[in-house]
UniProtKB/TrEMBL annotation:
Keyword Secreted in annotation: no
This protein's pathway: Carotenoid biosynthesis
Location(s), subcellular: Membrane
One GO CC term on file: membrane
Predominant location: membrane
Taxonomic lineage: Eukaryota, Fungi, Dikarya, Ascomycota, Pezizomycotina
Topological category with respect to the lipid bilayer: Multi-pass membrane protein
Transmembrane segments: 57-74, 171-194, 247-271
Xref: InterPro entries: Lycopene_cyclase_dom
Species of origin: Friedmanniomyces simplex
GO biological process: carotenoid biosynthetic process
Keywords: Carotenoid biosynthesis, Isomerase, Membrane, Transmembrane, Transmembrane helix
Protein name per the record: Bifunctional lycopene cyclase/phytoene synthase
Length: 341
């Protein structure tokens, strides 16, 4: 629903009746993508193209596939249970499991845009230096991990209560129940990176796309007729024209994208930093490699190697920041070797 909330708005003077006007109205939906979602994608692609690597393309494809696989069943359920609906004459008509193709395209383009922004902002970062060896039994990190897990678990519990109760909190509860478990798992796997990485790699790529979509959603809905079903929405607004459910959806989906990217980079950092654990790793990590790296206990990390890399990076940045930034053109263990040199 949230994608079409951005895309579907009724143009003054255009009625969705008759063949000609209906076609024009449907063209309006396509123009919403051309106006709001595709231009940022083209701009980010143009900026990032000289820096793009095979690993980046693999990461983008990986995230988009996961986004589609996790979102399509949920969105299809919302339509089938009448949590939200859409005007039949406001969409092209093609559907995937009952979901308009415009909505499915939004899942792809949102993931693409947020991912590219993350990649661009994270390009200078050498992720290996943000790994932390945890001492068994006396590490603050276990409390950081548990605190995040507890907070997310309570949010999921509250969302489940909203869904069970039905009524005006239903849609909000469904959003939290859907997104919460994914965020819980990603936090459990990558909490070190989510806390340690610069805010330009975590907060900024969440906040900027979210704010942009909030503004776009507000502009579209103020001119349109798109609504969540009255019986399943809270009626709360973030500001006039932006319903709370819309705001929460965009925020949580961008959190999911960035958390997923951070977890991916966390796994790749482990694979690249500790050749003693992964002597034969090179190139693109398989899903199995990613899972194995994320499940490697932090207590087994080579603290001396991490400290050595941190000292090398600090020294290099102090003496030649331009060379440090230039090293980001290289990938994986090659970049680590260059930094050490």
């Amino acid at each position: 629903m949230t994608a079409l909330a951005v895309l579907v708005s009724e143009t003054p003077g255009m009625q969705a009746t008759g063949t000609g006007s209906s076609l024009g109205y449907r063209q309006q939906v396509a123009r919403r993508h051309l106006t709001y979602t595709i231009p940022p994608a083209l701009l980010l692609s143009l900026i990032y193209a000289p820096l793009c690597t095979r690993l980046d393309l693999y990461k983008l494809a990986f995230l988009i596939i996961i986004a589609l696989a996790s979102t399509i069943p949920w969105d299809s359920y919302l339509i089938r249970t009448n949590i939200w609906s859409y005007p039949l004459d406001a969409v092209i008509g093609l559907k995937i499991y009952g979901i308009p193709v415009e909505e499915v395209f939004f899942f792809v383009i949102q993931t693409y845009n947020t991912s590219l922004l993350y990649l661009l902002l994270s390009k200078p970062v050498l992720h290996s230096v943000y790994l932390v060896k945890e001492q068994k039994g006396r590490s603050k990190w276990k409390y950081v991990k548990l605190f995040g897990q507890l907070g997310l678990a309570l949010a999921i519990k509250k969302g489940a209560e909203y869904v069970r109760a039905g009524g005006r909190h239903t849609y909000l509860g469904l959003i939290v129940v859907w997104a919460g478990p994914f965020l819980w798992v990603l936090w459990a796997l990558a909490y070190q990176f989510l806390v340690n990485l610069p805010l330009t790699s975590t907060l900024v790529p969440i906040a900027l796309p979210t704010l942009y979509l909030w503004v776009v959603d507000t502009l579209a809905l103020k001119r349109g007729t798109w609504v969540i079903e009255q019986g399943t929405k809270t009626g709360w607004t973030v500001w006039p024209g932006l319903e709370a459910e819309e705001a929460v959806f965009f925020l949580l989906t961008n959190c999911l994208i960035v958390f997923g990217l951070v977890a991916f980079d966390n796994a790749v950092a482990v694979l690249n930093t500790f050749p003693a654990h992964y002597p034969h790793f090179s190139g693109l990590p398989s899903p199995l490699h990613l899972v194995q790296a994320l499940l490697l206990p932090a207590a087994t990390y080579d603290d001396d190697r991490i400290l050595g890399l941190q000292q090398c990076v600090a020294r290099l940045r102090a003496k030649s920041r331009s060379f440090y930034l230039a090293s980001s053109v290289f990938q994986g263990r090659l970049r680590i070797d260059l930094v050490i040199l």
